[in-house]
Amino acid sequence: MRTVLVIEDEQLIRSGLIRQLNWERCGCAVIGEAENGQEGLTLIRRLQPQIVITDIRMPVMDGLEMLRRSKAEYGYEAIILSGYGEFSYAQQALALNVSDYLLKPVDLKELEDKLKRLADRIVAPEEAPLSLPRRASVYIEEHLSEELGAASLAEHFSVSADHLSRLMKKEYQLSLHEYIIALRMRRAALLLRQVPSMKIYQVAAKTGYSDYKYFHAVFTRYFGVSPSEYKDEKPQQEEL
Fold first, then answer.
1. Pick the CATH number of 2-121 from 3.30.300.20, 3.40.50.2300, 3.30.1380.10, 3.40.50.300
2. DSSP code string of 125-184
3. Can you spell out the DSSP letters for 21-48?
4. Which of 29, 165, 75, 177 is nearest to 67 (CA)?
5. Over 50: is that where the pLDDT of 208 sits?
């Protein structure tokens, strides 16, 4: 699966894309989302996605500036979604070597087709072996609901815990513990948005927390609001 980051300031559009696209058919998986270019830049540096889908006009930092600051360094593929058809935007996007430039309203079938072709072009893991931090990241994502710790992860990859922690810090600018929490919190946030019928204790279990109170404390500290407040403040999803 190719990893995807979705950056869009309109929450209904962003959530609609994440909820409605057939990511599995595209050979992709969403690992994060952001509502402006500054947040997107932070997640690009932290999660290092293979594909970035972004709007152009956003508050704080626009999509083009975000691409200028990160695309060459991190080497991801980019698809721009924009409600603005001016040629100047397309010119700037081409100069940044984006893969596609699509106008809103988004045709989901067209976007899925483009994502599938793009995912097929990206070098497969067996053709380009992943670094240890990347392999650890994939493993963590696949086992978020399980108990994860430096010792067990180090044993799985046959390295010392200190060595794995140093590599993760160098790769993601986060300690191993911080990285696991970040992925768990992002997964929890997505579940709260996408599956409103899921109880908060179920979200906690899905993200590796058997102790609901501890999950509640970690989530509140990470996002600044409790899980129930976060869930309640999200509007009902609508079609794109």
1. 3.40.50.2300
2. TTTSPPPHHHHHHHHHHHTTTS---HHHHHHHTTS-HHHHHHHHHHHHSS-HHHHHHHHH
3. S-HHHHTEEEEEEESSHHHHHHHHHHH-
4. 75
5. yes
Its pTM stands at: 0.54
User: Could you tell me the two tokens for 95?
Assistant: 């100069």
Q: Angle 2-205-136 (CA atoms, 0-180°, nearest 5)? A: 35
**Fold classification of 132-232 (topology level):** Arc Repressor Mutant, subunit A (1.10.10)
Entry field: residues in the chain: 240
Mean pLDDT in residue range 220-225: 92
Q: What is the pLDDT of residue 106?
A: 87
Q: Rounded to the nearest 5°, which phi and psi values hold at 6?
A: -110, 125
- Reported as type and span, the H/E element at residue 75 is none
